[in-house]
């Protein structure tokens, strides 16, 4: 799928989290989570900084709310998974979140950008 240039870097950064999600689902991945967590948290902050204003300007509070709720839930699940609990739940939530962004959020924002083009 070809992404709008505004979303290419976000989309590329989803590869490692998807792999991590599969490892967590299988009951492993704690070390990988510890290694990737700082980058994923920075990714969340950048998405919130960049995407939330766009969603607000497009009148999409439900998508903005879901993005924030999922980020908050993932932050808590990551902390729990680092302690060895809820590994599979964290993995599934991470996979589901990436799918939401790739299949719902980015296509919505891309459609809005295309509609605004002359």
Question: In summary, what is this structure?
Answer:
The chain has 118 residues and is an all-alpha fold.
Structure description:
The protein has 118 residues and is an all-alpha fold. It has one domain. Helices cover 81% and strands 0% of the residues. It is built from 5 helices and no strands. The chain has helices spanning 8-12, 15-25, 30-57, 61-82, 87-116. α2 (15-25) packs across α3 (30-57). The longest helix has 30 residues, at 87-116. The radius of gyration is 15 Å and the shape is elongated. The model has no long low-confidence stretch (mean pLDDT 94).
Descriptive keywords:
single chain, 118 residues, mainly alpha, 5 helices
Secondary structure: elements and pairs:
Layout lengths: L7 H5 L2 H11 L4 H28 L3 H22 L4 H30 L2
Helix pairs in contact: 2-3, 2-5, 3-4, 4-5
Radius of gyration: 15 Å
Task: Name the structural class.
Answer: mainly alpha
Give the integer mean of the pLDDT values.
94
Element order: H for helix, E for strand: HHHHH
Strand content: under 5%
Low-pLDDT stretches are none
Largest sheet: none
Number of strands: 0
């Amino acid at each position: 799928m070809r992404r709008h240039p505004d979303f290419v870097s976000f989309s590329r950064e989803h590869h490692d989290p998807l792999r991590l999600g599969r490892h967590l689902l299988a009951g492993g991945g704690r070390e990988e989570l510890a290694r990737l967590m700082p980058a994923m948290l920075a990714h969340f902050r950048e998405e919130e900084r960049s995407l939330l204003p766009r969603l607000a300007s497009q009148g999409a509070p439900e998508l903005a709310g879901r993005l924030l709720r999922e980020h908050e839930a993932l932050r808590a699940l990551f902390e729990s998974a680092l302690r060895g609990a809820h590994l599979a739940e964290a993995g599934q939530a991470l996979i589901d979140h990436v799918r939401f962004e790739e299949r719902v959020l980015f296509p919505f924002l891309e459609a809005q950008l295309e509609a605004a083009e002359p």
